[in-house]
Design a protein that fits this description.
The complex is a heterodimer. Helix content of chain A is 42%, strand content 14%. Chain A is α/β, with parallel strands linked by helices. Chain A is globular. The N terminus of chain A is likely disordered. Helices cover 41% and strands 14% of the residues of chain B. Chain B has a 7-stranded parallel β-sheet with strand order 3-2-1-4-5-6-9, with helices on both faces. In chain B, strands 7-8 form a two-stranded parallel sheet. Classes of the chains: A alpha/beta, B alpha/beta. Chains A and B meet through helix 6, strand 8, helix 9 and strand 9 of A and helix 6, strand 8, helix 9 and strand 9 of B.
Chain lengths: 295, 290
């Protein structure tokens, strides 16, 4: 621990790392790093010595996170783009390679339900928007990073799923994430021979006190009007009008009876991305306070 | 305090277990020893428990030499009385029990189910089902009183493989023990998880698989024996490549015990503070059915 003396004096990005430096000399792309789980992941990777490419759809958010990292002595850069679009994903990878020379880790956080309502109230346009955000982003990001990782003969990808696959009010999002699980499990079998690992973290409800953009950011689709009784029931489930508080969802589904901190999700993402998981690929790790996960 | 590379360099400087007391049941060799080294590397005080006194003491000495506070306990952890004595002794020496890692277990024989004798089946269940059951039962009063704790049990990829039906069934039971117990004890701040290894190199094996088991092996017909040996190669050592590696493992290699220990340490640490009741397969990409 020769260098720990000087490191102790820098601002701490994530105390949970407890001094670990598993990502020294590693280049990590966090897609969707502007807030919440993505930002927490960027901080955890940075804390452990990674060079971080902070990618987000919102420029201010990406810049804020990169500035946080740099202030703590972490090498970082930003990329701003819509990662539901293949060409933006390809540009992200090209840029990371250009700036940092390689790509060791890709953490795909982009995604998240836009609306919460029974399936019959989703309009076709809403369903397409959900699938675009939560299915296509991981698909294109994985596809875009693969040539680099295959050439390197090494790499680790972590995708995000969700406990919503066995919950309610988010059918299109749940279906998209079911697809992301299968993308990960089948891709992992193909790329094991290149030394590339692909895993999934499946969060339950997670506090994101740092949310700066609304769930429907950049989505030009109107919300549905729910019958009052339906809206009331939904709000009870999620514990308030804002998605999401501590409501019946947490009480019924989560034995720990609380939401996760974003740093708890980041700890699992960092584990799967690190050499600590060198014999783990194609797996889904639920980080869900004990909720039953069906996959 | 151990230097960064003394016991397990994979820790990369992490000190997640500073001030924590960890009981490793089955710490004498293989995954258990690797787990003891990893937790010790990260600052834990370790109680190394094993059936074989010499193995427990060897690991305890390794840790102590690296500056880790450690003690050993010798006993047959298939017996409830010994499990209780282990917990009482740990509490007496170290004051509390933060982590329990149950590595005790492992198949004794490998053969098709019809060649297992009833006595062999009972021996497999005694070795792989009862230790986690009794160890969890014995530690619970301490962890409930503390209102905190983390338990990591071991399962196996054998649940979806061949030639180890009694062992597989025992470990299926351990999974259900874990997932249902997790729901009951979440309210006390106790987490219970399972790590499911696939084939793992244990170059340090000193105790044979049938230690303490006074039962004869079955006579297998030559054809059955040949097929079994093709499947495993030369046992689990991996010098002669078994068919199962190519059949079951996309990474096409054995794991190192330290790779299993890394996953155990993750689940036992605060990095997994929102994870309970889960099975984490460490299987080189093998499909896991639970």
């Amino acid at each position: 621990m020769a260098d720990s003396g000087s490191e102790r004096s820098r601002p701490t990005l994530d105390a949970r790392a407890a001094g670990a430096r598993r990502f020294r000399d590693k280049v990590v792309i966090v897609a969707g790093a502007g807030q919440g789980i993505g930002r927490a992941s960027a901080r955890r990777f940075g804390e452990e010595g990674a060079t971080v490419m902070v990618a987000d759809i919102v420029e201010d958010s990406a810049r804020r996170v990169a500035a946080e990292l740099e202030q703590a002595g972490v090498r970082a850069a930003t990329f701003v783009g819509d990662l539901c679009e293949l060409k933006d994903c390809q540009a992200l990878m090209a840029r990371a390679k250009e700036v940092f020379g390689r790509i060791d880790v890709l953490a795909v956080i982009v995604g998240g339900t836009i609306w919460a309502q029974p399936f019959q109230y989703y309009t076709p346009a809403q369903i397409e928007a959900e699938v675009r955000r939560s299915f296509w982003a991981p698909m294109w990001l994985c596809w875009s990073v693969l040539p680099y990782m295959i050439e390197q003969r090494g790499g680790a990808i972590v995708n995000l799923a969700t406990s919503a696959v066995v919950s309610r009010y988010r059918v299109p999002y749940a279906a998209a994430k079911g697809g992301v699980i299968a993308l990960s499990t089948s891709l992992s079998k193909e790329v094991a021979r290149y030394g590339i690992r692909v895993n999934v973290v499946a969060p339950h409800g997670t506090d994101s006190d740092d949310r700066v953009i609304p769930r429907d950011y950049g989505v030009n689709v109107a919300a549905s009007t729910l019958p009052p009784a339906e809206a009331e029931e939904r709000d009870r489930f999620f514990g308030g009008k804002g998605v999401f508080g501590v409501g019946d969802s947490v009480r019924q589904e989560v034995p720990m009876g609380r939401k996760a901190e974003a740093a708890e999700q980041a700890a699992a993402i960092a584990f799967l991305a690190s050499d600590d998981a060198s014999y783990i690929t194609g797996q889904v790790l639920p980080v869900a306070g004990g909720a039953t996960f069906p996959f | 305090m151990p230097t960064e590379t003394t016991l397990d360099p994979a820790a990369a400087g992490a000190r997640r277990f500073v001030g924590k007391i960890a009981v490793i049941a089955g710490a004498g060799q293989g995954i258990g020893r690797a787990a003891a080294r990893r937790l010790g590397q990260e600052g834990a005080t370790v109680m190394a428990a094993d059936l074989i006194a010499a193995s427990a003491e060897r690991v305890c000495d390794e840790l102590a030499e690296a500056g880790v506070r450690a003690a050993s306990f010798t006993g047959n952890l298939s017996e409830l009385d010994n499990c209780r004595a282990l917990m009482a002794r740990t509490r007496e020496l170290f004051g509390r029990i933060d982590v329990l890692v149950n590595v005790v277990g492992g198949t004794i024989w490998t053969q098709s189910f019809q060649y297992y004798t009833p006595e062999q089946i009972e021996a497999e269940i005694a070795k792989s089902f009862w230790p986690p059951m009794w160890l969890c039962s014995a530690v619970l009063p301490y962890m409930i009183e503390q209102r905190a704790g983390a338990i990591v049990n071991l399962a196996t990829h054998a649940v979806a493989s061949r030639y180890r039906v009694p062992y597989a069934a025992a470990k299926g039971g351990v999974i259900a023990l874990t997932s249902s117990l997790a729901k009951e004890v979440a309210q006390y701040g106790i987490r219970v998880n399972v790590m499911a290894p696939h084939a793992t190199q244990a170059d340090d094996r000193v105790t044979p698989r049938n230690a303490g088991v006074a039962l004869a092996a079955s006579e297998l017909p030559p054809e059955e024996r040949a097929e079994r040996d093709r499947f495993f190669g030369d046992g689990f050592v991996g010098r002669q490549r078994g068919e199962f590696i190519d059949l079951e493992i996309p990474m096409k290699r054995f794991s190192r015990a330290s790779e299993q220990a890394a996953a155990i340490a993750f689940l036992a640490s605060d990095d997994a503070s929102y994870i309970t009741g889960q099975v984490l397969p460490v299987g080189g990409g093998a499909t896991y059915p639970f």
